[in-house]
């Protein structure tokens, strides 16, 4: 059975204009949308932190490690991320998708911001038993920095090396990668595919996020996804999850949003 990694962006499930403002109705809607497909596709879901953890992470400079930040700041940031995670898990339970939580901070060890060690055999067993593993961007211990932030993309990078998913779906609040910010420029054009022929040109388009995002803007995310596609052979797809039905379309193979392929 094929395996998909599905990210639910923090901008989708929280109100980024207000601190710690989750959108449980949206979270429930997303899980209800993917539920019918769990019998045909194994899935691992990861979610961003949105208005929960990004604010304290930025305030305490957690991603710069213990030489700049503090253990207090790391603890506060980890707690904020976990608060949203428990909301997501609760919503998933209410829809009957049988979630099982996997917190990177409980087992992952990074080195200079990259996860170096994290035993995924429990997650693989959970998939075999029919659970829906749910993980998230988290504060993790770091060999060289003391601690750092593992973004959901970094978590997926580590998972993808072991699980070798067929598809990696990144759900955001925009319809893919554009040649300019579609929230500012109504004439922004969607880039339907990123491939070896145009990736360098498109990386020049993708600037930093306009929101506080200590794990990097769209350019960083695109680099992660392109490299994951290169390393695993997975097709990556960025899609707007604020539009009902888009997740179903992507799971069923719909060509919407931006496709990222680093092969062929």
Structure description:
The protein is of the alpha/beta class and 264 residues long. It has one domain: Acetylglutamate kinase-like (Carbamate kinase), CATH 3.40.1160. 38% of the residues lie in helices and 22% in strands. It is built from nine helices and 14 strands. The strands form three sheets. An eight-stranded mixed sheet has the order 3-6-2-1-9-13-14-12, with helices on both faces. The chain has a four-stranded mixed sheet with strand order 5-4-7-8. Strands 10-11 form a two-stranded antiparallel ribbon. Strand 7 and strand 8 form a beta hairpin. It is globular and about 45 Å long.
Task: Write a brief caption for the model.
It contains 9 helices and 14 strands. It is α/β, with parallel strands linked by helices and 264 residues long.
Q: CATH class, please?
A: Alpha Beta
CATH architecture: 3-Layer(aba) Sandwich
Number of helices: 9
Q: Write down how many β-strands occur, each being a DSSP E stretch of 2 or more residues.
A: 14
- The rough form would be described as globular
Strand order of the largest sheet: 3-6-2-1-9-13-14-12
SSE blueprint:
Blueprint: E1 3-8, H1 10-13, H2 24-34, E2 42-47, H3 50-60, H4 71-95, E3 99-101, E4 109-111, E5 114-117, H5 121-128, E6 132-136, E7 138-142, E8 146-150, H6 152-163, E9 167-172, E10 177-178, E11 190-191, E12 193-194, H7 199-205, H8 218-232, E13 235-240, H9 246-251, E14 258-260
Parallel strand pairs: 1-2, 1-9, 2-6, 3-6, 4-7, 9-13, 12-14
Antiparallel strand pairs: 4-5, 7-8, 10-11, 13-14
Helix pairs in contact: 2-4, 3-4, 6-8, 7-8
């Amino acid at each position: 059975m094929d395996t998909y990694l599905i990210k639910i962006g923090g901008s989708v499930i929280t109100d980024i204009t207000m601190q710690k403002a989750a959108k449980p109705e949206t979270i429930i809607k997303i899980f209800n949308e993917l539920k019918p497909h769990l019998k045909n596709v194994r899935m691992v879901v990861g979610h961003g932190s949105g208005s929960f953890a990004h604010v304290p992470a930025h305030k305490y400079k957690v991603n710069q490690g213990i030489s700049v930040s503090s253990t207090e700041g790391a603890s506060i940031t980890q707690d904020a991320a976990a608060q949203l995670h428990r909301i997501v898990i609760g919503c998933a339970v209410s829809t009957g998708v049988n979630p099982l939580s996997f917190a990177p901070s409980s087992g992952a060890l990074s080195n200079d911001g990259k996860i170096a060690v994290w035993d995924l055999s429990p997650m693989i067993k959970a998939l075999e038993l029919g659970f829906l593993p749910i993980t998230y961007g988290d504060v993790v211990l770091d060999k060289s920095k003391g601690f750092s932030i593992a973004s959901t993309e970094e978590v997926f990078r580590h998972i993808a090396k072991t699980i070798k998913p067929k598809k990696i779906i990144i759900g955001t609040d925009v319809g893919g990668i554009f040649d300019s910010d579609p929230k500012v420029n109504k004439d922004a054009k969607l880039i339907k595919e990123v491939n070896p022929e145009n990736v360098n040109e498109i990386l020049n388009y993708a600037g930093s996020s306009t929101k506080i995002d200590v794990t990097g803007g769209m350019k960083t995310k695109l680099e992660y996804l392109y490299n994951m596609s290169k390393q695993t052979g997975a097709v990556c797809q960025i899609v707007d999850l604020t539009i009902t039905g888009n997740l179903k379309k992507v799971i069923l193979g719909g060509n919407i949003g931006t496709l990222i392929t680093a092969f062929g």
